[in-house]
Write a structure and sequence with these properties.
Helix 6 links the parallel strand 8 and strand 9. The protein contains 16 helices and 15 strands. The chain is globular and about 60 Å long. By secondary structure, the protein is an alpha/beta fold.
């Protein structure tokens, strides 16, 4: 079985990563009742149990102990003490046993919401240390297939150092796939320089990532609010458990005014949980991570995959009845279930992957694809651009779930809005001096970054221009007589 390494960068990256490891351990504990270190655990964990007798690790209070997560945390503080607080919470929390202090890289001075500080300053300062820890982590893998990078785009550490690590991975492990989960800031983000950081980071994502899963904070916030509204209205038909991720510390449902970062992080973690399920569990039609890139990315730069998840409240401890299978497929293509502010049904598909978990048959997949195809617009040269995967192990508390990954031009408005926000600052040269005083940072970095983003938008425009055109069969080879 193949293995993957998760690289968590910045406050957001580590908070999401912490949720992922917690949920992954819950899943393995629910499936692996005896807590024996097996092949499915080897995909993301390594056994460090030195006890004799070969009984393997135990499960204690729903958590498999004596395991070290295959994760290398590269943490720089966006705000002084704040990032150290995230790391300290992990090391003092219930997951402290699965992390090794040798897997952590921390600093106290912070990146100050500045991409240049994270990328140019701390990147080069910690380069050798990062490479060493990456190599040591990779040595524990028998068949390393993929690196997952989790980071945010708006701050300085996640965007700057996160993309620096991405470059390092391409240099040091060119044959290993690089999947990036990028959390994009909302238009009302409290970091004024987030448009600069995001556009500078996007140039690196365009050039060095194999697949990028863009996720918008605004979309996550809307999803959490909708869940709360459904709970309050009684539409979900039940209550939320005490200490749930969608409740406050007092056990009551959070109000809309509060920013439910835990619940938002939980949704992203569940995306990763479903994405990696085929690598962690058996299934009748398992999908390798490299198959996603191979089948969904027809052109190198157009590697941004729009994700949707159903049910959205997986593992948030909400007691709700399972959705019917056909309704679950319909939900995955609805605007309300997208993790960015987009409506893929009204845009152009290059390809689409469906990763289903639970007791679902291949015939169910085919039937629903045929049902949905007439309402979806695919490029003329890839009308059958579907990739499917079936994992037999469902999420905890549900009979089945579905993750849809779409290479779709609906991601374009997110990039256009980001470009507009960038240009509002850049036209006035506002805040540039904060970046340009960093060694190696020049104004050409900004012009090259916005040019890269503009070129990407134009590529999506060219595809959109073909929407609704006649479907032509590819020309056949003519044999000269």
């Amino acid at each position: 079985m193949t293995q993957s390494v998760v690289v968590q960068v910045g406050q957001c990256g580590n908070q999401v990563g912490c949720r992922f490891w917690d949920l992954a351990l819950r899943e393995h504990a629910a499936v692996n009742k005896k807590g024996i270190y097996d092949e499915s655990l080897s995909s993301f964990f390594r056994n460090v149990d030195t006890r004799s007798g070969g009984d393997g690790p135990d499960i204690y209070k729903g958590k498999i102990c004596s395991l070290k997560a295959r994760v290398r945390q590269s943490i720089k503080a966006l705000l002084i003490d704040m990032e150290e607080g995230v790391v300290n919470e992990i090391l003092q929390g219930p997951l402290r046993d699965v992390f090794d202090s040798k897997q952590l890289i921390t600093d106290v001075s912070g990146s100050g919401n500045n991409w240049a500080v994270g990328h140019k300053l701390y990147g080069y300062q910690y380069r050798e240390n990062i490479v060493e820890k990456l190599r040591k982590t990779a040595e524990h893998c028998d068949c390393l297939q993929c690196f997952f990078i989790i980071h945010s785009m708006g701050g300085g550490t996640g965007s700057g150092l996160g993309t620096f690590v991405l470059n390092l991975l391409e240099d040091e492990f060119p044959e290993v796939y690089r999947f990036v989960t990028s959390v994009y800031p909302s238009g009302e983000d409290d970091v004024i320089t987030s448009p600069y950081n995001s556009v500078l980071a996007m140039k690196e994502l365009n050039e060095h990532a194999d697949c990028v899963l863009p996720i918008e904070n605004e979309s996550l916030f809307d999803i959490v609010n909708k869940i709360h509204q459904m709970i309050d209205s009684g539409k979900l038909g039940s209550t939320v458990k005490q200490n749930s991720l969608v409740t406050s510390s007092a056990g009551s449902t959070k109000t809309v005014q509060e920013k439910p970062f835990d619940a938002m992080n939980n949704i992203v973690a569940n995306l990763l949980l479903n994405l990696t399920s085929s690598a962690r569990f058996e299934g009748s039609l398992n999908m390798d991570l490299n198959e996603i890139s191979m089948n969904l990315v027809p052109f190198p730069r157009l590697h941004y995959l729009v994700s949707s998840l159903t049910p959205l409240y997986t593992l948030t401890d909400v007691n709700v009845p399972s959705r019917r299978l056909d309704q679950m497929f319909s939900d995955a293509f609805s605007r309300d279930h997208q993790l960015i502010q987009a409506d893929p049904k009204h845009s152009l598909y290059l390809a689409c992957a469906l990763l289903v978990r639970g007791n679902v048959q291949v015939s169910d997949l085919r039937r629903n694809i045929e049902r949905l195809k007439p309402s979806l617009h695919f490029v003329s040269w890839n009308q059958e651009g579907w990739k499917t995967g079936l994992c037999s192990v469902p999420p905890v508390g549900h009979s089945h779930s579905l993750l849809a990954l779409a290479n779709n031009t609906c991601v374009k408005p997110t990039f256009i809005e980001l470009k507009d926000r960038f240009m509002k600052l850049y036209k006035k040269k506002a805040h540039l001096h904060h970046y340009l005083h960093i060694d190696g940072m020049e104004q050409s970095c900004f012009s090259e970054a916005i040019s890269s983003l503009s070129d990407l938008i134009e590529e999506y425009n060219e595809l959109d221009a073909t929407k609704g055109g006649p479907r032509t069969d590819p020309s056949r080879l003519k044999i000269a007589v």
